[in-house]
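Lay summary. Proteins are chains of building blocks that fold into shapes, and those shapes determine what they do. In this project we predict the shape from the chain. Here is one chain we studied, written as its sequence of building blocks.
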Amino acid sequence: MTSRTVTLLDVARAAGVSKSTVSDALQGSGRVAEATRDRVRTVAEELGYRPNSAARHLRRASTGAVGLHLPATATRLDYYMNLAFGAVERAQEDGLDMVLLAPSGASGGRIASRVDGLLVIDPEAGDSAVPGLLDAGVPVVTGERYLGPANSPSGAVVCDNAASLTALLDHVTERGARRPALLAPSGSSAWATALRATAGSWGRAHGVAVTLRTVPFAATPAEAEAATRALLADDPAVDAVICAPDGSAPGVLRAAAALGRKAGRAAGEADPRAGAALLVASCVDGPATRGAEPPVTAVDLRPAAYGRACADLLCDILAGRAAPDTVRRHAWSLETRTSTGAPG
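And here is the predicted shape, written in a compact code that computers can read:
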């Protein structure tokens, strides 16, 4: 019979303190009261906790590398490729190599023996690799919060996703929309969860029902086109479609054209000869939205800068320039274009 390895999280729960406090107490570092340090060490001994080699080298940059875990769908999304390039560039400035982890992930113990810290981007509560990575015994920074039940990451860089969707909904309403709809991402990431919740809360606050259709987290243009066709067939009164997944907005434009809807014309300016108006916007900017015809209004999440910010926080934690539980904010901008009747 084999017993489960005791982790830092187990010790933290038993001692009633945070995981970072346990780490500091066992290493003799940080500002930990002597009584707390003694209690943590006693609990660790009683539970049979044994630190692995990586845990003993926390914050020492002993391997010269950090790991990057991306969602399984990341390889075909422009957003994540730009984010990864930004993270790599920033890590190299501190002399650190970046190790891209396989989508299935490695067990926390194995990967922690090869890296000094981890970046976990848009962690899904349903991703079986994430809990082990968060409890690997090395500093972790997540891009957006992990909403799963088990562990708390060391640090995080977050966007105000509720505010970005609110800005889009406010914008299409100002442009004349009265029946907006959202092609919302599926999944359990903080981004997907915030968008779905915000559609409901914005609608209640404005007395407007936002029609919600769920599409895959990384929906293709074809999937977005099919969802939009079904949406407009079920509810022809919808006059604005906000598409969440990166790169899928051109599918919404194709559906509009096929159904005789004029994308890019404000509702109050509809020309009966050109078909009913339909405003189109996207929650993620990129080449697909900028190069569409008409160009699509979108939220620029500045992915390269976001990846750089995540790596910057991890580098600061490793070097002792930031506390392990630091949370930083990342700014976005709304780029208005002709798909919502805005000047081109």
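What the prediction tells us: The domain at 63-158+301-332 is CATH 3.40.50.2300 (Rossmann fold).
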